[in-house]
Design brief:
The chain is of the alpha/beta class and 397 residues long. It has two domains: 2-52 and 367-395, Urease, subunit C, domain 1; 55-353, Metal-dependent hydrolases (TIM Barrel, Alpha-Beta Barrel), CATH 3.20.20. Helices cover 33% and strands 22% of the residues. It has helices at residues 77-87, 92-108, 124-129, 149-162, 183-193, 207-215, 219-226, 241-248, 265-274, 285-291, 298-303, 323-333, 339-346, 348-353, and strands at 2-9, 20-24, 30-35, 45-53, 55-60, 111-118, 133-140, 170-175, 198-203, 254-259, 279-283, 307-310, 371-375, 392-395. The strands form three sheets. It has a six-stranded mixed beta sheet, with no helix packed on it. A hairpin with a 5-residue loop joins strand 2 and strand 3 (30-35). The radius of gyration is 21 Å and the shape is globular. The two termini are 12 Å apart. The model has no long low-confidence stretch (mean pLDDT 96).
Length: 397
């Protein structure tokens, strides 16, 4: 039995707690939330700061960890993708060592679950052994070539089968992005998931994405030409990119739209009206700055009462895999987002998006959410707390 308290506790699902002790069993399950007066102070771990549940990182590319620092910042998305393709093939031992290191760093940074994109099987062994829970999104694409859809599915099925659902981990097949997946491949992915999965998709990360679907113009035309991929069979829809995705995704699944840098209130409303079992919006603030030097307008998501989650993207497009650093960036550039709202984005919303909320995401009796200690916040009470450059996280459980 372990007893922990701090100046304040944010359970996420209820009011901020003070003078409260979290009682946990030996497996880290919350047994009780008691008044501090019910316990001998000598039997309680007492901390200065704020206790919160473990962080959920809903968007990562763990298999790209070996590419840290190899792709320049500020290139914009299309040159970035080209650079990633050129740098993927390195010695296997370098890839595996970087995966292991990144997983350890995320655990130390208070991350308890990760939604991870996989194109290969490189991460499977680490995920099976890791104390972090993983929801693996086996990502597929055929570059808008309907005739190549069956071949793409065949290529990625071994990855899907090899990312086994063990130790609480889960998996699903997912489309890469609207601009890279044909209607036929969307259909094959839907058949594989059978309406029960969480499905991740990159969305509206760069202006050329919307230009392609609205007018069949923009830099993606040159991108495809550079790889000798024909777009003869593709026609502009006259709508933004997310509408193409909505037309082909399975509304019975839970959906996680990733980046959303250019999503408008109309785009957000369309998706939320469409989704039957939950639409979530993963923001990767540091990656957006790294690649495109722009951020989403988070006010659009607040106005829509949208369920935002936090992702780190990969070490190809970020300086670290830290949910706390994502929260600091959002607070720095769009400080109107409330502290308590950011905590929910980083915990319970992410747990719900990955369907891990039965165990993770909030300080509730019966859950094993992990416990993080935040210190160095700006402000001195819950009324004015904010993330600051000095804020740190320490994993306690």
């Amino acid at each position: 039995m372990r007893k922990i308290t701090a100046d304040y506790i944010y359970p996420i699902t209820g009011e901020v707690m003070k003078d409260t002790v979290i009682v946990l069993d030996d497996q880290g399950t919350i047994v009780r939330l008691d008044p501090a007066s019910a316990h001998d102070a000598a039997s309680v771990e007492q901390h200065t700061g704020v206790l919160i549940p473990g962080f959920i990182n809903t968007h990562c590319h763990l298999e790209l960890s070996h590419m840290k620092g190899k792709v320049a910042t500020g290139t914009q998305l299309i040159p970035f993708i080209t650079n990633v393709v050129q740098h993927r093939d390195v010695p296997e031992e370098e890839i595996m060592a970087a995966i292991d290191q990144a997983d350890r760093e995320m655990y130390a940074a208070g991350i308890v679950a990760v939604g991870d994109i996989s194109n290969k099987l490189d991460t499977a062994a680490r995920k099976a052994a890791s104390p972090i829970r993983y929801y693996t999104f086996v990502e597929m694409f055929d570059f808008l070539q309907d005739a190549g859809a069956a071949g793409a599915l065949k290529q990625y099925l071994p990855v899907y089968e090899g990312q086994a659902q063990r130790g609480g981990n889960r998996r699903s097949a997912v489309p890469h992005a609207p601009y890279s997946v044909s209607p036929t491949l969307f259909g094959l992915i839907n058949e594989l998931n059978q309406g029960q999965a969480t499905v991740s998709i990159h969305n509206q990360e760069t202006p050329p994405e919307n230009e392609l679907f609205e007018h069949k113009t923009g830099d993606f035309i040159g991108f495809y030409q550079g790889f000798n991929i024909p777009l003869d069979g593709f026609s502009a829809t006259g709508q933004t990119a997310i509408h193409y995705a909505l037309a082909h995704l399975d509304p019975r699944c839970r959906h996680l739209f990733v980046h959303n840098t250019l999503s408008t209130p109309a785009d957000i409303a369309a998706a939320q009206a469409w989704g039957q079992h939950g639409v979530y919006w993963a923001t990767c603030a540091n990656a957006n700055l790294y690649i495109e030097n722009r951020l989403p307008n988070y006010q659009h998501f607040l106005d829509a009462d949208a369920r935002v989650t936090i992702g780190t993207d990969s070490l190809t497009s970020n300086w670290q895999l830290s949910v706390l650093d994502e929260l600091k960036t959002i607070s720095r550039y769009q400080s109107y987002v409330p502290f308590a709202t950011l905590l929910r984005w980083a915990t319970l919303n992410g747990a719900e998006a990955l369907q891990f909320d039965e165990d993770l995401g909030s300080m509730s009796v019966g859950k094993q959410p992990g416990i993080n200690l935040l210190q160095g916040l700006a402000g001195d009470t819950p009324r004015n707390f904010a993330f600051a450059a000095s804020t740190t996280v320490q994993r306690l459980v």
